Amino acid sequence: MIIDLRSDTVTKPTAGMKEAMFSAPVGDDVFGEDPTVNALEEKAAKLFGMQAALYCPSGTMTNQIAIRLHTRIQTEVICHKYSHVYLYEGGGIMANSLASVKLLDGNLGKITADQIKASINPDDVHAPETTLVSLENTMNKGGGSIYTLDEVKPIRKVCDDHGLKLHLDGARLFNALVETEESPADWGAQFDTISICLSKGLGCPVGSLLLGSSADIKRARKVRKSWGGGMRQAGFLAAAGIYALDIHVNRLKEDHARARTLGVMLSKLPFVSEVFPVATNIVIARLDRISPEEFLKNLAAREIKAVKFGPDLVRFVTHLDFGDDGLEDFGEKINVFHNY
Ligand SMILES: *Cc1c(COP(=O)(O)O)cnc(C)c1O
């Protein structure tokens, strides 16, 4: 059996999820007539205490639409230098919104209110106007690290004091919330827009949600249309999202427990110099004496898949299709590396 830990996007829909998908009532969502899409959008908006939501094909689209809403040509976005919105969205901030980026450094991928405050551009002819701060929770490149509400509230205050919008790339927000036990509504209250991925830990085949005010989501719907993201009988896909919000949130804790065990296993290998603190379902290991390519090749020979995540880093992500059997199998297979 192949153990695929490259990402939590590799999961296949469960039997229960497929049943929900096949039996979904559908209509033409571009006409606003798909009852299942409408139900998913309403359910998510209500959960986060936000006015409205928009179902999109991907998290890249929901993030990029949010950035489009909160910027104009010659304005600037503040984010961490390892943010998904900057690193992994094809240069979309520039290509889709003609905006500039201010990249901040920070521990485990996180930035602070003080750093943000110091990075807001002055009202000066030389500088692009700062209009948006974008945070990521959990932070992928920080090893699945978590922002708490106590860290976000001072950031919200800086944004309010300076007239900035605040967006959350919450691709894995539920992974954070099941650990902190903070409520989605308390998070909804802090942000202008939130993007949530249904196709990561929540196990859907497709889909992300953008949450925000009714006015912002109305504009977002038009941006989505112009980018070709208006889908027709999308309720078959949205049904998976409803199912996942009901059934797949609490079980994320299991993925976290397995990730912690996996982190301990990796930390015992002689060529692993460091494992990032395992906060959720992402495990990042730093290697010495052996390159990521060599380690990954040796893992692949044992039917284990992971990804390179930097010059000396590899990443493993636990998910719905990685159970206790997989974990045990993983432990046995990596035993051979103890004499490496
Ligand atoms: C996966 C991911 C996204 C969105 O990715 P898509 O593949 O476009 O759905 C956004 N942000 C983070 C942190 C992610 O991990």
UniProtKB/TrEMBL annotation:
InterPro entries tied to this protein: ArAA_b-elim_lyase/Thr_aldolase, Low_specificity_L-TA-like, PyrdxlP-dep_Trfase, PyrdxlP-dep_Trfase_major, PyrdxlP-dep_Trfase_small
SUPFAM superfamilies membership: PLP-dependent transferases
UniProt KW keywords: Pyridoxal phosphate
Cofactor: pyridoxal 5'-phosphate
Pfam family for this entry, one: Beta_elim_lyase
Domain Aromatic amino acid beta-eliminating lyase/threonine aldolase: start-end pairs: 4-287
Family recorded in the similarity comment: Belongs to the threonine aldolase family.
Protein name per Swiss-Prot or TrEMBL: L-threonine aldolase
Organism: Algoriphagus winogradskyi
Biological classification of the source: Bacteria, Pseudomonadati, Bacteroidota, Cytophagia, Cytophagales
